[in-house]
Design goal:
Number of domains of chain A: 1
Number of domains of chain B: 2
Radius of gyration of chain B: 25 Å
Number of helices of chain A: 3
Distance between the termini of chain B: 47 Å
CATH class of chain A: Alpha Beta
Shape of chain A: globular
Distance between the termini of chain A: 42 Å
Structural class of chain B: alpha/beta
CATH architecture of chain A: Roll
Strand content of chain B: 15-25%
Order of helices and strands of chain A: EHEHHEEE
Oligomer: heterodimer
Largest sheet of chain A: 5 strands, mixed
Largest sheet of chain B: 8 strands, mixed
Radius of gyration of chain A: 14 Å
Strand order of the largest sheet of chain B: 3-2-1-4-5-6-7-8
Helix content of chain A: 10-25%
CATH topology of the largest domain in chain B: Rossmann fold
Number of helices of chain B: 16
CATH architecture of the largest domain in chain B: 3-Layer(aba) Sandwich
CATH class of the largest domain in chain B: Alpha Beta
CATH superfamily of the largest domain in chain B: NAD(P)-binding Rossmann-like Domain
Shape of chain B: elongated
CATH topology of chain A: Ubiquitin-like (UB roll)
Strand content of chain A: 15-25%
CATH superfamily of chain A: Beta-grasp domain
Chain lengths: 103, 387
């Protein structure tokens, strides 16, 4: 967290498969100044989410996409360090294969 | 091929009547209807997504419909796979689907591929088709369909569903992204949702399958704004449709300029799937349903632990203590490690994990009910409902 940056209240939308790790909520409110800050607040309030979003060495997993509004965070120039502004929303989009289960 | 399609594209008097509501709208018209008739569309799967898709493409007059499926219709399919009827249970999905398509529109040429799509047959099967529609339900086949479409230069009309959420897009177009641009890698099997959080609202594949059918028809007509470079998210519960931007990943291993994949790979291995059995179910002590029944009837002190979810317990149960697998770590203190414990779930996989977990926590007298409550219903209590 950088001193002096404003903490913006924002919503992170949690997709169905991950809701069980986020207290069954479909959206979580956080206070953050950047995308990375928002995600880190999300996993600190819902630690079970961490291994689903990050690899052991702390990188976002390849099968989880994070969108700031309608834009893929990977393609923003500052990526996860992008500052957030009022009204921004984060959405987690995991890959889903179909309605099947693996037993 | 080109000359024969040219000749057969002419519409008969009967076909003109059949397609009249298309012919009188300028966006389709006679020319569009002839394009539909000349089109060759391959549907991967005739399940939840494939059912509405195949029905509508057939009704719309797509001339050649390829169907790939190796499965047999069962009762649990009927809640969403509307191309199959109750009387079809036990029949090959291909036969059931082909029959429905022919009864809706005898002018459609149905080509059946009774096989599991694989790296050995995909490119050969794709060869005779213009568009591939992905109605599969597993990661290995999704990556296979994507790669085969990119390698053969065919559009891949994508749809995917989970519970009451769906995704749709059109991949594999020349300047558009592919599935790997969106998801370079599949989730490891351990992070794929299991039965406990699986299931699908029956109507959802209808919604998403019809979006796929719509995109397919637009591609054939060359009309409208295709879902290329956009991911449509469908939330049936909130009834909200959202759209996200998709970009072609310059580092994509299959469609990028420096691609590393030049031929189809082993997709089971890529997705980390080795064999059908989940490893947890083999390494823990088991008890057979018949033995459990005999010992319970004899009044032996056995604690039955049901690790399914509460909504599953309501369907059928063995009067066990319900502690869902996910709650087990924090509710372990409710269990008496001196008593003999038999854990069960639906099929034995989740309870295998529970037994493994409890043994590591020091429980010695804990066993897994082999085959779960399904095996109990099959072998001990035929009156018990299965799901």
């Amino acid at each position: 967290m950088i001193a002096g940056t404003t903490q913006i209240p924002m919503k992170i939308f949690i997709p169905t498969p991950l809701r069980q790790y986020a207290g069954k909520q479909d959206a979580v409110e956080v206070q953050a100044s950047t995308i990375a800050g928002a995600l880190s607040e999300l996993v600190s309030s819902h630690p079970d989410l961490k291994r689903h979003l990050y690899t052991d060495d702390g990188k976002l997993r390849a099968f989880v996409n994070i969108y700031l509004n309608d834009e893929d965070v990977r393609y923003l120039s500052e990526k996860e360090q992008t500052p957030v502004k009022n009204g921004d929303q984060l959405t987690i989009i995991p890959s889903i294969a179909g309605g099947n289960c693996i037993l | 091929m080109a000359t024969s399609t040219l000749v057969s594209n002419a519409l008969s008097k009967d076909e003109i009547l059949r397609y009249s509501r298309h012919l009188i709208m300028p966006e389709v018209g006679l020319e569009g209807q002839q394009k539909l008739k000349a089109a060759r569309v391959l549907c991967i799967g005739t399940g939840g997504l494939g059912s509405p898709l195949a029905l509508y493409l057939a009704a719309a007059g797509v001339g050649t419909l390829g169907l790939v499926d190796f499965d047999v219709v069962d009762f649990t399919n009927l809640q969403r796979q509307i191309i199959h009827s109750t009387a079809d249970v036990g029949r090959k999905k291909l036969d059931s689907a082909a029959e429905k398509i022919e009864s809706i529109n005898p002018y459609v040429d149905v080509v059946r591929f009774e096989t599991r799509l694989s790296s050995d047959n995909a490119l050969r099967i794709f060869e005779d088709f213009d568009i591939v529609v992905d109605g599969t339900d597993n990661f290995p086949t999704r990556y296979l369909v994507n790669d085969a479409c990119v390698l053969s230069g065919k559009p891949n009309v994508y749809g995917s569903i989970f519970r009451f959420e769906g995704q749709a897009s059109v991949f594999g177009m020349k300047d558009g992204p592919c599935y790997r641009c969106l998801y370079p890698e599949p989730p490891p099997p351990g992070l794929v949702p299991s039965c406990a959080e699986g299931g699908v609202l029956g109507i959802l594949p209808g919604l998403v399958g019809i979006i796929q059918a719509t995109e397919t028809i637009k591609l054939i007509l060359g009309n409208g704004d295709p879902l290329v470079g956009r991911l449509l998210l469908v939330d049936a519960l909130g009834m909200r449709f959202r759209e996200l931007k998709l970009r072609k990943n310059p580092e994509c291993p299959v469609c990028g300029p420096n691609r590393t994949i030049h031929e189809l790979i082993d997709y089971q291995e890529f997705c980390g799937i080795r064999g059908e059995e989940a490893p947890a179910s083999v390494s823990v002590p088991e008890i057979q349903p018949e033995e459990l029944k005999r010992r319970l009837d004899a009044g032996e002190d056995i604690f039955v632990l049901d690790v399914r979810e509460p909504h599953e317990y309501q369907i059928c149960n063995l009067n066990g203590q319900l502690i869902p697998l996910g709650d087990l770590p924090k509710r372990m203190n409710e269990l008496d490690s001196s008593r003999e414990i038999v854990a069960h779930c639906r099929s034995g996989v989740r309870s295998g994990k529970a037994v493994d977990f409890l043994r590591q926590a020091g429980f010695r007298k804990v066993k897994n009910l082999a085959g779960g409550i399904l095996a109990w219903a099959d072998r001990v209590d035929p009156k018990m409902p299965k799901y």
